[in-house]
Amino acid sequence: MQIFVDADAVDYKLISICHKGDIVVSQDYGVAAMALGKNAYAIHQSGKWYTNENIDQMLMERHLNKKARRASGKKRLRGSRKRTAEDDEHFRESFEKMIHMAMDKEK
């Protein structure tokens, strides 16, 4: 599938085809919030689960970080470190747990 509209077009398309019980992998808190709003599951590439209990705090932190970047004149405060094999393993374990939890809820 190819989408060429704007920066958020892929996000909106993803959410438009997302259904209850689906699992969305994203590093974008906004996408995660929209997925949770559709009763889907959302997980960050780090393995952290987005939940209805933590998403508001994460969105607020994103907002505050954006304000700090704007105030400092910097586009980014710091870059991401290189992904490691341990990061991949942590994600795999967390993702598998989420899959099992989602499947158990569907029973």
Give an overview of the whole structure.
This protein is mainly alpha-helical and 107 residues long. The chain has a domain at 14-55 and 83-107. The chain is 53% helix and 7% strand. The protein contains 4 helices and 3 strands; from the N terminus they run H-E-H-E-E-H-H. The chain has helices at residues 9-16, 29-37, 55-72, 85-106, and strands at residues 23-25, 41-43, 49-50. Strands 1-2-3 form a 3-stranded mixed β-sheet, with helices on both faces. Strand 2 and strand 3 form a beta hairpin. Helix 2 runs antiparallel to helix 3. The longest helix has 22 residues, at 85-106. The chain is globular, with a radius of gyration of 16 Å. The termini are far apart. The mean pLDDT is 89. Residues 66-82 have a biased composition (Basic residues). Residues 66-89 are annotated as: Disordered. This is YaiI/YqxD family protein. Belongs to the UPF0178 family. InterPro entries: UPF0178 (IPR003791).
